[in-house]
Amino acid sequence: MTTTLHAASALFTASTGAEPTGLWSAPGRVNLIGEHTDYNDGFVLPFAIPHRTVAAVGPRDDGRIRVASTFADAPVEVALDELDDLFPTPTGDAPRVPEWAAYPLGVAWALRRAGVTGHGVDIAITSDVPVGAGLSSSAAIEGATASALNDLWAAGLDRTALARIGRTAENEAVGAPTGIMDQMASMLGEPDAAIFLDCRSLEAEPVPVGVVEAGLAILVIDTRVAHAHSTGGYRERRASCELGARTLGVASLRDVSVDDLDRARELLDDVTFRRVRHVVTENQRVLDTVRTLRAQGARGIGDLLVASHASMRDDFEISVPELDTAVDAALAAGAIGARMTGGGFGGAAIALIERDAEAAVTDAVRAAFSASVFADPEVFTVTPSAGARRDA
Ligand code: GLA
After folding, report:
1. Is the shortest distance between the CB of 128 and ligand 1 below 6 Å?
2. Which one, of 148, 145, 151, lies nearest residue 166 by Cα?
């Protein structure tokens, strides 16, 4: 983390010749359970991870915004007044600026559309959140930028409002039709807790995970199969959910319970039914996970994680062979539970393991990848960590 802070500060100075006014950071996230439920007004249980994105920011007196980052050689610069010419990005099109720049510029645009603006700014962004791993590197950029501009432009928005700004940037500037889970997790994360979020009311409650006390650890297995949510499968799954809700006559799938599934099977075609069944049962699994964590602690949630993965693999069909291999190998090596995390079609899986089994599970997963001739995965542990903040 200190390295990322220094790197952001150094990048700022290299590109402007000045010291930044301040450093703001926001984390990536892992979702413990509750996948593709957020845009269905449902429940999710993500937590912020120690990996963070840092924005070093300082004022300019010419009404322009310039973003530099370690993602690209050249900075991108526009007048704040011209942001409306760039965004929103028409559905299905690529942003009119390089994609990485659409995140911070989209945040500035979304703030202005919400009536918040101020002087021009220079922004330098560095990150140690793995990109394309399903760990919300994009929400981390949005959270760091939104937190910085909120302070520098004296907007006084609360964390939930900043998460909404981040989602607007993601949906309308980048063009990815995602829900709000990642931005909420990045803004609201707390050490040692997952964030139980009702995506309809946006009420959020920290739920202690207690992994360390229980002698457990959470392993992230990044398959290094890259994915993008602005295209293809994610959009299709979202459309299926909307079709299911419309056919069932409800505002969103949040309003369908497990008991309603028999009737849903009669009304929906097979594919739409299975998409709906995933969302409905996943919502129930989030509620069951929260209850189990409170009653028994993390050791009790293994079966729920495994059932969640099976539902994503078989009903929602968003897993890939690498993710299934990661989950199966971790379970065979003694993991208490495992599942893919995030939007799917690549990215990472998580495994809940005994702390002293880290080496054994990691080796087993690597061996299984090697036997399947998959690229070597990145494997590391994470602990629930703090959300967005000003660091300096
Ligand atoms: C991505 C999106 C989130 C959420 C997950 C799936 O991470 O950004 O909004 O829909 O996929 O749970």
Report:
1. no
2. 145
> Which of 35, 45, 29 is CA-nearest to residue 209?
45
Tens digit of pLDDT for each residue in 145-204?
A: 999 999 999 999 999 999 999 999 999 999 999 999 999 999 999 999 999 999 999 999
Q: What percent of the chain has pLDDT over 70?
A: 99
To test the ligand 1 pocket, which listed residue (30, 129, 136, 181) has its Cβ within 8 A of the most ligand atoms?
181
- Verify whether ligand 1 is closer than 6 Å to residue 35 (CB atom): yes
Q: Nearest C-alpha to atom 8 of ligand 1 is from which residue? A: 178
Residue 267 amino acid letter = L
pLDDT in tens, 314-368: 999 999 999 999 999 999 999 999 999 999 999 999 999 999 999 999 999 999 9
Residues sharing a CB contact under 8 Å with residue 296, sequence separation 6 or more, in sequence order: none
Predicted confidence (pLDDT) per residue in 21-42, tens digit: 999 999 999 999 999 999 999 9
Which ranges of 177-269 would DSSP assign to H, the alpha helix? Answer: 181-188, 233-248, 261-267
Q: What is the pLDDT of residues 109-126, one digit of tens each?
A: 999 999 999 999 999 999
What local confidence, expressed as pLDDT, does residue 231 receive?
A: 61
The minimum-distance atom of ligand 1 relative to the CA of 234 is 11
For ligand 1, say whether the CB of 342 is within 6 Å of any of its atoms: yes
Mutate to test the pocket of ligand 1, among 35, 131, 178, 236 (most ligand atoms within 8 A of CB): 178
Half-sphere exposure for 17 (CA within 13 Å, toward CB): 1
Alpha-carbon separation of residue 351 from 29, 152, 187, 219, 251 (angstroms): 15, 40, 24, 5, 34
Could you give all domains of the chain from N- to C-terminal order, each with its CATH number? Answer: 2-206 (3.30.230.10), 209-382 (3.30.70.890)
Which residues participate in catalysis according to the annotation?
Answer: 182
Residue 41 CB–ligand 1 contact under 6 Å: no
Neighbours of 99 (CB within 10 A): 18
- Ligand 1 touching residue 245 (CB < 6 A): no
Q: Which residues pair with 305 in a beta bridge?
A: none
- Residue 333 burial (CB count, 10 A): 19
Q: Which atom of ligand 1 lies at the shortest distance from residue 39's CA?
A: 10
Alpha-carbon distance of 217 to 382, in angstroms, equals 8
* Backbone φ, ψ for residue 90 (5° rounding): -55, 140
